[in-house]
User: Which sequence fits this backbone?
């Protein structure tokens, strides 16, 4: 790169890593996940192979810590409640109302975690091109519309998925549904929510790998995304197995539906636990 030139990396139209020359020599590297979760930007001084981290100001760091802890705890509790609900369905009384109540409580925590994850993106410190490798903190916002950012799109799709799950969880309290109504009101939103979770996870992997397939065993962020994506795959397997056969009125495979939900929900709890350590 020549002075002033920028090198952008990412998937398709999205930029997840940006490298540019500093006016006084050396380079700065901004990565969307590191800036959003850690509040840092890497600076390589002129002639020095190793980089140092320029962190955001204390206001941004306090904000990021609070948001990160809230989202992580929400996913830990939400995943645990989903696992308990699946355990009750498989090993307990199997009472539909009890299971629906536990799942609904877990869904509220997933809603919270999804929205706070979006707030992390909206209020992340931003880099200033030409600003000598600094991160700046903007005023607090409750919402933004930035579909050109892969991190915003991933978080928005995740939050939307939690809202679609809420429709499924509310409909599960309805009594006396026909097989057709059960598949339309409960099963279909479940599948749609799982698809949105998978899309969100794919975008998160594209962000952390900058558009290339990668396995980053030393990256805590990669492990969080990978574990959550495994949970999304298991949720999809559970949703497909929960289809109600029109001929018999029974689930396609109740055992697969319950066990896949239990293990998938445990993955989200584990992802939330790991996220507690991915803080500024």
Assistant:
């Amino acid at each position: 790169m020549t002075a002033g030139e920028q090198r952008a990396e990412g998937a398709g139209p999205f930029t997840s890593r940006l490298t540019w020359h500093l006016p006084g020599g050396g380079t700065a590297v901004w990565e969307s996940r590191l800036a959003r979760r850690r509040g840092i930007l890497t600076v390589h001084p002129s002639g020095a192979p190793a980089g140092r981290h320029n962190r955001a100001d204390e206001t941004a760091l306090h904000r990021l810590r609070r948001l990160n802890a809230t989202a992580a705890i929400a996913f830990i509790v939400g995943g645990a409640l989903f696992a308990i609900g699946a355990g009750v369905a498989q090993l307990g009384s199997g009472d539909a109302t009890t299971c629906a109540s536990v799942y609904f409580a877990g869904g509220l925590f997933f809603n919270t975690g999804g929205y706070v994850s979006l707030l992390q993106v909206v209020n992340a410190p931003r880099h200033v091109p030409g600003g000598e490798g600094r991160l700046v903190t903007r005023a607090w916002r409750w919402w933004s519309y930035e579909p050109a950012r892969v991190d915003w799109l991933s978080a928005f799709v995740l939050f939307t998925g939690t809202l679609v799950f809420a429709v499924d969880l509310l409909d599960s309290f309805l009594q006396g549904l026909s097989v057709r109504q059960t598949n339309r009101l409960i099963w279909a939103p479940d599948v749609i929510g799982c698809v949105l979770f998978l899309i969100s996870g794919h975008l998160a992997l594209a962000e952390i790998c900058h558009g290339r397939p990668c396995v980053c065993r030393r990256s805590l962020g990669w492990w969080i995304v990978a574990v959550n994506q495994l949970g999304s795959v298991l949720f999809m397997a559970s949703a497909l197995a929960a289809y109600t056969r029109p001929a018999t009125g029974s689930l396609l495979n109740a055992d697969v539906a319950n066990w896949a939900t239990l293990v998938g929900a445990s993955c989200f709890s584990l992802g939330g636990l790991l996220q507690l350590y991915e803080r500024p």
Remarks:
- The CA atoms of residues 71 and 113 lie 4 Å apart.
- The mean pLDDT is 89.
